Amino acid sequence: VPALEAAGLRHSYGGGRMALEDAAFTVMPGHFTCLLGPNGAGKSTLFALATGLLRPTAGHVRIHGHDIALEPGKALARMGVVFQQPTLDLDLTVMQNLRYFAALHGIGRREANRRIEAELVRLSLYERAGEKVRALNGGHRRRAEIARALLHRPSLLLLDEPTVGLDIPARRTLIRHVHALCAGDGTGDDGDRIAVLWATHLIDEIDPATDHVVVLHRGRVRASGAAPAVSAAA
Ligand code: ADP
Ligand code: ADP
């Protein structure tokens, strides 16, 4: 079963052209899939549909077989999301933020501490745990958002333009960390690899470790396949 499967996906905000038109693609378990498309291609609309914030005009998104519109609880339990808008409180420390979000997920205190420590270590943020989010640079903030998105141990991570506002070294570092999540070198008890859907408008964020590329243009999937073939076509 794919980690994410979009089929026949259409969305109209009303008015002019469709934001998404018959989009179909899959994100396979443990794969790093890059959703590549210029501004206005429909990437954010796709994220809103995949997370249940919007209902599709037609088609469906399934997360590990669960339709997000029909079984949102089951689908959301398997999914972590890093939206473009930050979710962490700037005036709380990284640790305070993560404890708060762990509590929202109903994770007990001891288990929360264990998971938070593990995520901070694998995202190279352990030394920042006691700092206010406001004091972190952009790259560290993004990694703290990723730690937040992983607390409930999802097997699929969606990131909407996670490198916006970062300089090139910070971008490379962020990509490297997310590829490492996919490669399953993390601390997950069951060794499960995390599938990633990484949305970007920057073709140079496709690198040799990218398993799959989906090219979105004007609401349609223009190409889908292994990274070298698709980036040559894009
Ligand atoms: P088609 O639509 O003809 O299946 P694709 O390029 O989407 O063309 O798929 C080509 C091959 O890649 C197929 O074997 C398919 O199972 C596989 N595939 C499709 N999507 C993914 C993905 N996200 N990750 C890995 N393999 C995929
Ligand atoms: P991307 O994230 O790739 O930049 P979007 O999903 O934001 O693309 O946009 C896809 C299309 O939908 C664009 O034509 C955009 O103008 C339109 N759109 C996005 N959000 C809204 C909205 N809330 N209301 C009306 N149109 C929208």
TrEMBL record:
Highest taxon of source: Bacteria
A Gene Ontology MF term for this entry?
ATP binding
Q: Which SUPFAM superfamilies match?
A: P-loop containing nucleoside triphosphate hydrolases (SSF52540)
Question: Which residues belong to any copy of the ABC transporter domain?
Answer: 4-234
Q: Which family does it belong to?
A: Belongs to the ABC transporter superfamily.
Q: Which PANTHER family match?
A: ABC TRANSPORTER ATP-BINDING PROTEIN, ABC TRANSPORTER ATP-BINDING PROTEIN NATA
The protein's name: ABC-2 type transport system ATP-binding protein
Supply the source organism for this entry. Azospirillum picis
